[in-house]
Write the structure tokens for this entry.
Amino acid sequence: MMMIDKLAYSSPWRYKSVYLKSIFAVGTLFICVAVRSFLISCIILILMGCLTVRYSRASLSRYTRMMMWPFAFLIFGTIAILLDISREPAGICSLPVGNHFIIITVYSLTYALRLILVSLASVSCLYFLVLTTPVLDLMTLLKKARCPWILIELMTLIYRFIFVLLDSALSITNAQNCRLGNKDLKTSIKSMGNMLAALLVQALRKSSLLYDAMEARCYDGRIRVLYESGRAEKKEIAAVVLYLAALLVLAVICWQKGGL
């Protein structure tokens, strides 16, 4: 979380229009999910990866590691789609289990690969937006979109409090490691319980202090922050519109050809 926040604030596109970046990323995401095409997904995955690495200050190796997080979940999640049970051997692969066979058909393999590719391309769109746009700018965008203010306030407080708790957890873990608190499995489990108990107490104390600090600054139920974002230039708007139009035309062609 801290790494993502640092990359967003240090991005060269940090002060680009949040509206234009959101339209670019979300529009691409919608086209990707709606068409579910192999070609469109590959184009989006490569394009968003290149833009994210280029304009988020994230190295290629770090970005690859970040993409491996959802990829690992997708592998386990698509196993149920990939495998099927049959009374007779069929498909491109079959494994006998008792009186039945675990099979993999061409359709299930194609469907699983399509699902993984579309999901990774969709995640790359979100990574582009998150790694080039700070969360406060996204919160401002949600306010402009008439999102209920109570949800925005909760999201802002929860997001900021994550870093407070993460810093406390890392400090406690480092202190435990210095005292051999994780030398074996039994000790690690006990140390984890002590750390969570101490973290709960600190979380309650710091949340109370945070509320007192907000009250001392005339908190009236809404958090107001400074909004820093540049205006979109005409050439940037034209480039995004042309890109989305070209991608949409290509997506329609792929859809007519059966999701190529």
User: Anything to note?
Assistant: The chain has a mean pLDDT of 84.
